[in-house]
Amino acid sequence: MDMSGKVALITGGGSGIGRATALVLAQAGADIIVNDISPEKAEGVAGEVADLGRQALPIAADVADHTSVNTMINQALSNLKKVDILVNNAGIGVEVPFHQMTKAEWDQMFAVHIGGTFNCTHGLVQQMIDRGWGRIISISSGAGLMGEAGLVHYSAAKAAILGFTKALARELASHGITVNAVAPGLIDTPLARSIQPETWEKFVKITPVGHEGRPEDIAHACAYLASEEASFVTGQTISPNGGIWM
Ligand code: NAP
After folding, report:
1. Global pTM?
2. Deepest of 79, 87, 156, 230, by most Cβ within 10 A of its Cβ?
3. Residue 196: pLDDT band by 50, 70, 90 thresholds?
4. Which residues line ligand 1 (CB under 6 A)?
């Protein structure tokens, strides 16, 4: 897959799946805007992208904050002139039983996952329409497909991404823009490692391939959806999950 001449913006790109996706797209020839809430993490991954010989622009912003996202988009467009590929990846995950969940925890989960997906996509879609080409990829979760105990807020927000993806795919199909979701199973990242060790073991046990996935397993699915070769794929959810959900 050749992504020379393309520019990708990856939210939450400073760690885990976002970092791996930044590096895989850069290896394919894309220039990369690395967003993260942490400036140090964004700069670290931007340095790794630059080492691959691609242009790299780190931008720290909270995707849940509409004003910060608009500032980020202005900075991205004034530096790299366009964004062809958006990967809505930034995410958080805190296990809490539903009956103990606070309204603030519920709201925060939606603000980051579906609010962040709205903020970034809405801010970038017009310039994709203007050029008649775009790729919007949003990271959902196996939890959004199956539901997960202790993660009602997370599961609901990740399921919302699937509805967003399908509706927007229908709206944008005639503009040369595809809109897809990736719903990972258990992937070895700092976020997933924050769950209880017993929960981790439980997930590994019920994953038919018998082990967790690597961030690169998701990055390659994103790269396919971002490619020219995937121009007939829209409104879909790809779930690299080791067979945990079929
Ligand atoms: P990760 O290693 O923690 O990476 C996520 C990155 O996003 C972190 O650097 C995080 O910063 C950043 N971030 C958090 N909130 C943000 C915000 N409001 N604005 C900008 N950046 C923000 O986790 P990951 O596992 O790679 O997760 C990436 C995506 O995959 C998430 O959407 C997650 O829900 C999804 N996912 C992961 C798995 C899995 O098993 N790992 C499974 C299914 C879906 P902080 O560390 O400071 O929060």
Report:
1. 0.98
2. 87
3. confident
4. 11-12, 14-18, 35-38, 41, 62-64, 89-93, 112, 116, 139, 141-142, 184, 186-187, 189-192
